[in-house]
Amino acid sequence: MSRAATNVVSTDAMLMSAIRSGDEQAMAQLYERYSSIVYSVALRVLGDTGAAEDILQEVFMQLWRSPDTFDATRGSLPGWLAVITRNRAIDSLRKRRPETDITDVIVSIEPDLVGGAELSRALERIRCALGGMPPPQRSALEMAFFEGLTHTEIAEKTGQPLGTIKTRIRAGLLTLRKAFNP
Amino acid sequence: MSVHEQFADDLSPYALGALQGEERLAVEKHLQDCPDCRHDLAQLQGDLALLALSASGPKPPLRSRERLMAAIAKEPRRTPVRLVKRKTWWTAVEWATAAAAVAVLALLLRQNTDMRQSLAALEANSTGQQEQLLQAKELIATLTSADAVHFTLVAGKIPPQPQGKAIYLRGTGTLVFLASNMPELPPQKTYELWLIPTSGAPIPAGLFRPDAHGSAALIKPPLPTGVEAKTFAITVEPGAGSAAPTSRPIMVGIGG
Known about the structure:
The structure holds 2 protein chains of 2 kinds. Chain A is mainly alpha-helical. Chain A is built from 9 helices and no strands. Chain A has helices at residues 3-6, 12-20, 24-46, 49-65, 77-93, 116-131, 135-146, 151-158, 162-178. Helices cover 42% and strands 20% of the residues of chain B. Chain B has 6 helices and 8 strands; from the N terminus they run H-H-H-H-H-H-E-E-E-E-E-E-E-E. Chain B has helices at residues 3-15, 21-33, 35-53, 62-74, 92-115, 119-144, and strands at residues 149-154, 163-169, 174-180, 189-197, 203-208, 216-219, 229-238, 251-253. In chain B, strands 5-4-7-8-1-2-3-6 form an 8-stranded antiparallel sheet, with helices on one face. The longest helix of chain B has 26 residues, at 119-144. Chain B is globular, with a radius of gyration of 21 Å. Chains A and B meet through helix 2, helix 3, helix 4, helix 5 and helix 6 of A and helix 3, helix 4, helix 5, helix 6 and strand 5 of B.
């Protein structure tokens, strides 16, 4: 039996270490832990279950083939997976080749999300922070992130000045950060 | 507005992938030379990760798991690569040499993988390689710098003796930590390394669990820059780690 399979609770670092050694069970555990995050983000961006499944497959296969693309210096694994999934999904939406090398993505995030109850609590705080934002601010932020629109495109779509859109997005991101670092 | 401020202003659209062409290249070039902006970008990516996580909810169909596991089974298995395997005690020079070799090996492995990709993908990856090279150079500079402070952490004289070596460069907040003969932990516990500043509360410097040989490594965990270290210490914490120590240190640095 593999080392990862004998542990009731393996940390992300332990699972990644086992994956580097070619441990398929460790990959299965990591999938159980984070497939929902990857799938949800891809589905939110693409709005299509089949396309979201393709991105899910692509992201986890990339991790299996090149596990060294993620290490502790990249930050939180679920945060990193969420960001690279969003980037891949936006590339797919815009039918363009991947623009961001995933080894460039470093995610500095508080708290250190490790799944389970802690992740659930964090999600509650994130949704609460989003719910408390002024609707135009939240809308600008979500258009930029989940629809992949540029600031100029958002300004044209909403009829607001470019500077206003920039300010709303910056303030929105700051609100999310402050939900964890008041 | 200074040049730096101008780039700082571009970081959120850059993180969102909303910059194109020359604007994007200019930010990437600036990032290579500006650790502050790299730090800010990492924080912005963290903010975006929180936003991404807000979409969490739907679960993928079962067939996705089967598809992935079937695809993985078809891929050739890799030869295990371990960062730290030796059981014998290393001298400081051996530690430093081995850590530098790991950095160079990781770089070479990555370059080897990239060579198998198409020319277009190589072009897209070139910025990432430069970043990787900068990180490797930074790591080697830390290991060899005359300004780096070396701490030796010990827990007793009964063999095999748990030991840790923390090599810390205050100016860049860069830390390399290597441990050997560490006792095994219960599944829900982790070791946590702490930077003990000359004033103020201990700063978390990374979590680690030893491998089967009792060895572990932390390379460049996220730390603030410019903090003067009085010493380093290790505690046993719950699996997710703690923001402040919840138990007495089991190992403390004895020299600087």
